[in-house]
């Protein structure tokens, strides 16, 4: 069956409510209706081709329409698409859990499945909270709060919103949220006059230690995105910051939750970001790249120590009461296993240093653009912060819609990228070739230069 653009446009506007989207504005614009994908490119309903410069919201790893990932899905569907994990097991979820334990930082030995980054965070928070009650309900009665970073984004379910630090998303739900304690985010560009990461790191860790000294008896856990705060605007942490946070969590008996939803699966140049500072979190959340952009699947990994606290007789009510209908779905686990198999077989992570270096060199020219205030890069994650006035680090007023016009310009020239506030974000597919990366940067550079 075929449809015209006009029909789809109308039905989209008549029936679909888009996420994180002001529908009044959306309905006035010409939509981008994607019909298919191939490799690094997306194609809209009219046949226009675009480089996927945001990995389809930070998920795609090997490219679109990958024959082997497609085959893995077909093969699994020929066996079974789904059966429940409640009181029963299934083959792909067992094999995937074993593999994830092998690949993630040492000490993370148990895998709890869910279906989005938000739910993986929700689970980590609930586990951390219940862990202390199970250890010693009386002694740890007050360990009910979580520390998270300014501008943090960990998802949009009520628990994950509670640990978020973005007022725009959270203010309206305040009465429903639990209490969080905020620590500074290492936003070197805005925190230091001379863009010095070391000063920024010392400041943030000192503040964290002050919070922990005063409040550690009330804190169940600290949640952090290792190395890069993605949705906050690609805030790249100074070297040693993550390690410093781990040390303080250990010293003050606070569980460390690493949210690797965005940074996991190669985005920062290693399979997991924690590896780069040899950090072993107590809980780790993974999602986005886990199925290489094919199906919704997430996991929360934790230690034997946390897991063991939940063991007991049914009547003791130590059970972790959480689970969703599609938890451990076979199709999703099968495609995740194939994703990991391809990563290992093709040595994709090993190809990244050359691409990352290429990006670094090409990004240098962006710094000379009049309205670029800061360029941040960690591996394949890039944020280009636009400013109206470089000296004052003043951003453009949102009413001018500068960032939106930049991405529209890029789209007209064949690349899809997205802004986060004043930051133009690039998150190329890991399998992109150097030529494709070059094309992406050329289009982005021209868009910023022309619009600003
Ligand atoms: N955590 C981080 C760090 C994220 O970047 C995101 C989404 O962007 C989430 C959690 C939530 O993931 P999801 O959108 O799959 O619920």
TrEMBL record:
<dbReference type="InterPro" id="IPR015421">
    <property type="entry name" value="PyrdxlP-dep_Trfase_major"/>
</dbReference>
<dbReference type="GO" id="GO:0004015">
    <property type="term" value="F:adenosylmethionine-8-amino-7-oxononanoate transaminase activity"/>
</dbReference>
<feature type="binding site">
    <location>
        <begin position="324"/>
        <end position="325"/>
    </location>
    <ligand>
        <name>pyridoxal 5'-phosphate</name>
    </ligand>
</feature>
<keyword id="KW-0663">Pyridoxal phosphate</keyword>
<feature type="modified residue" description="N6-(pyridoxal phosphate)lysine">
    <location>
        <position position="288"/>
    </location>
</feature>
<comment type="subunit">
    <text>Homodimer.</text>
</comment>
<keyword id="KW-0808">Transferase</keyword>
<dbReference type="InterPro" id="IPR015422">
    <property type="entry name" value="PyrdxlP-dep_Trfase_small"/>
</dbReference>
<dbReference type="Pfam" id="PF00202">
    <property type="entry name" value="Aminotran_3"/>
</dbReference>
<comment type="pathway">
    <text>Cofactor biosynthesis; biotin biosynthesis; 7,8-diaminononanoate from 8-amino-7-oxononanoate (SAM route): step 1/1.</text>
</comment>
<dbReference type="InterPro" id="IPR049704">
    <property type="entry name" value="Aminotrans_3_PPA_site"/>
</dbReference>
<dbReference type="InterPro" id="IPR015424">
    <property type="entry name" value="PyrdxlP-dep_Trfase"/>
</dbReference>
<feature type="binding site">
    <location>
        <position position="323"/>
    </location>
    <ligand>
        <name>substrate</name>
    </ligand>
</feature>
<comment type="similarity">
    <text>Belongs to the class-III pyridoxal-phosphate-dependent aminotransferase family. BioA subfamily.</text>
</comment>
<comment type="function">
    <text>Catalyzes the transfer of the alpha-amino group from S-adenosyl-L-methionine (SAM) to 7-keto-8-aminopelargonic acid (KAPA) to form 7,8-diaminopelargonic acid (DAPA). It is the only aminotransferase known to utilize SAM as an amino donor.</text>
</comment>
<keyword id="KW-0032">Aminotransferase</keyword>
<feature type="site" description="Participates in the substrate recognition with KAPA and in a stacking interaction with the adenine ring of SAM">
    <location>
        <position position="20"/>
    </location>
</feature>
<feature type="binding site">
    <location>
        <position position="288"/>
    </location>
    <ligand>
        <name>substrate</name>
    </ligand>
</feature>
<feature type="binding site">
    <location>
        <position position="153"/>
    </location>
    <ligand>
        <name>substrate</name>
    </ligand>
</feature>
<keyword id="KW-0963">Cytoplasm</keyword>
<keyword id="KW-0949">S-adenosyl-L-methionine</keyword>
<feature type="binding site">
    <location>
        <position position="259"/>
    </location>
    <ligand>
        <name>pyridoxal 5'-phosphate</name>
    </ligand>
</feature>
<protein>
    <recommendedName>
        <fullName>Adenosylmethionine-8-amino-7-oxononanoate aminotransferase</fullName>
        <ecNumber>2.6.1.62</ecNumber>
    </recommendedName>
</protein>
<dbReference type="GO" id="GO:0005737">
    <property type="term" value="C:cytoplasm"/>
</dbReference>
<dbReference type="GO" id="GO:0030170">
    <property type="term" value="F:pyridoxal phosphate binding"/>
</dbReference>
<dbReference type="InterPro" id="IPR005815">
    <property type="entry name" value="BioA"/>
</dbReference>
<dbReference type="GO" id="GO:0009102">
    <property type="term" value="P:biotin biosynthetic process"/>
</dbReference>
<feature type="binding site">
    <location>
        <begin position="117"/>
        <end position="118"/>
    </location>
    <ligand>
        <name>pyridoxal 5'-phosphate</name>
    </ligand>
</feature>
<dbReference type="InterPro" id="IPR005814">
    <property type="entry name" value="Aminotrans_3"/>
</dbReference>
<feature type="binding site">
    <location>
        <position position="418"/>
    </location>
    <ligand>
        <name>substrate</name>
    </ligand>
</feature>
<keyword id="KW-0093">Biotin biosynthesis</keyword>
């Amino acid at each position: 069956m075929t449809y015209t653009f006009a029909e789809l446009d109308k039905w989209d506007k008549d029936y679909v409510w888009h996420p994180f989207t002001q529908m009044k504005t959306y309905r006035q614009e010409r939509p981008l209706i994607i019909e298919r994908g191939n490799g690094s490119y997306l194609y809209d309903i009219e046949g226009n081709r675009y480089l996927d410069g945001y990995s389809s919201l930070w998920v795609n790893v090997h490219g679109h329409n990958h024959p082997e990932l497609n085959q893995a899905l077909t093969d699994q569907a020929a066996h079974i698409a789904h059966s429940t994990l409640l009181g029963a097991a299934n083959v792909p979820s067992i094999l995937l859990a074993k593999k994830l334990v092998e690949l993630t930082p040492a000490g993370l030995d148990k895998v709890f499945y869910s279906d989005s980054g938000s739910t993986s965070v929700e689970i980590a928070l609930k586990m951390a909270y219940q862990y202390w009650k199970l250890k010693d309900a009386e002694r740890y009665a007050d360990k009910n709060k979580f520390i998270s970073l300014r501008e943090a984004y960990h998802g949009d379910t009520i628990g994950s919103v509670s640990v978020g630090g973005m007022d725009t998303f959270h203010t309206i739900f305040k009465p429903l949220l639990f209490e969080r304690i905020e620590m500074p985010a290492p936003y070197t560009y805005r925190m230091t006059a001379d863009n010095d990461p070391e000063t920024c790191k010392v400041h943030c860790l000192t503040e964290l230690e002050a919070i922990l000294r005063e409040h550690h008896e009330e804190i169940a856990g600290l949640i952090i995105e290792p190395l890069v705060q993605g949705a906050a605007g690609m805030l790249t942490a100074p070297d040693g910051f993550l390690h410093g946070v781990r040390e303080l969590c250990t010293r003050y008996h606070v569980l460390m939750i690493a949210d690797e939803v965005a940074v996991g699966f190669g985005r920062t140049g290693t399979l997991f970001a924690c590896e780069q500072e040899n950090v072993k979190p107590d809980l780790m959340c993974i999602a986005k790249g886990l199925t290489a952009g094919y199906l919704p699947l997430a996991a929360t990994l934790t230690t034997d120590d946390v897991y063991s606290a939940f063991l007991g007789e049914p009547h003791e009510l130590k059970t972790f009461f959480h689970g969703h209908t599609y938890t451990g779905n076979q199709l999703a686990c099968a495609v995740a296993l194939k994703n990991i198999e391809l990563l290992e077989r093709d040595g994709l992570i090993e190809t990244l240093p050359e691409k990352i270096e290429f990006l670094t060199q090409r990004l240098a020219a962006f710094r000379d653009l009049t309205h670029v205030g800061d360029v941040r890069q960690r591996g394949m994650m890039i944020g280009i912060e636009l400013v109206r006035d470089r000296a004052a680090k003043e951003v453009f007023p949102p009413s001018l819609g500068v960032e939106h016009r930049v991405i529209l310009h890029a789209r007209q020239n064949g690349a899809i990228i997205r802004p986060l506030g004043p930051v133009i974000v690039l998150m190329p597919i890991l399998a992109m070739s150097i030529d494709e990366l070059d094309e992406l940067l050329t289009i982005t550079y021209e868009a910023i230069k022309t619009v600003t």
